[in-house]
Amino acid sequence: MNKKKIILSIAGSDNTSGAGIQADIKTCQLLRVFCLSVVTVVTSQGQNKVEDYQLVSKKVIKSQILSIFSQFKVDAIKIGLLSDVKVAEFIRDYIIKNSIDCPVVIDPVFKSTTGTMFYNKKEYKKIFEIFSSIKPIFTPNKSEVDLLIGNRGYSTMNKILKQLFLTYKTPFIVTGIKKNKKIYDYLIKDNKVIEFKSFKVDTKDTHGTGCVFSTSICVNLAKGFSIENSIEKTKQFLVKRLERSPDLGVKYGPTF
């Protein structure tokens, strides 16, 4: 019997189960891997906005991480919404100190789709600086990339990606750019840019697509696929899920 791959999701909790830890667990189940979780933020949200949220203390986050690594060998780590910069530093230092050698995919959420900001700009940029030393794969969307490098008049995605790589020296996947009824994602790795595209699915149920994307990338890397193949497989998976998204009677529903 083959040992089941184990993914660790370090992220926030979404009470609607559309995004965050809940989306990560569902993604892992569909892709037939086991998902462990460390909850960093508890949110109270609906289809229109995040009503409230509570940061989990660094002490409790640390306890969750220590308990997991005392029992399990993790095959890949996905990091989403964190509570603050000090938590990011602890996670980075723990990975380095304990020589944890597995893929790390980071989807550092700046704000919710409905507009709630979880960091200020300085803190957000600091999180990228902190984690860049462990050479993860970052998966920001275009608006988050604009925060990182500012509006410097870059005329093409190629130039934007080259600037990201020059600054952080680690792979980036810039996600979810809509053009001509297609969705484009761009990878920069070793200063080389690769474009990926798929048809845009006509659905209002897109809550959590960023979480599903980054977690699926993480799962495929844990299974031994290259970054390029992981992106291709992830895009195929996401299109299928969006085509079958549940109708829960809300305007902005979950991907699945």
Explain the overall architecture.
The chain is an alpha/beta fold and 256 residues long. The protein has one domain (6-243): 3-Layer(aba) Sandwich (UDP-N-acetylmuramoyl-L-alanine:D-glutamate ligase). 39% of the residues lie in helices and 23% in strands. Helix 1 (20-30) packs across helix 7. The two termini are 30 Å apart. The model has no long low-confidence stretch (mean pLDDT 92).
What is the CATH fold-level name? UDP-N-acetylmuramoyl-L-alanine:D-glutamate ligase
Number of domains: 1
- From the N-terminal CA to the C-terminal CA, the straight-line distance is 30 Å
CATH architecture: 3-Layer(aba) Sandwich
Q: Rounded to an integer, what's the Rg over CA atoms?
A: 17 Å
pLDDT < 50 stretches: none
In total, how many beta strands?
9
Share of helical residues: 25-40%
Task: Compute the average pLDDT.
Answer: 92
Shape: globular
The CATH class is identified as Alpha Beta
Topology of this structure?
Layout lengths: L5 E9 L5 H11 L3 E12 L4 E6 L2 H12 L6 E4 L5 H13 L6 E3 L14 H12 L4 E2 L3 H8 L7 H12 L3 E8 L2 E8 L2 E8 L9 H14 L4 H17 L13
Parallel strand pairs: 1-2, 1-4, 4-5, 5-6
Antiparallel strand pairs: 2-3, 7-8, 8-9
Helix pairs in contact: 1-7, 2-3, 3-4, 7-8
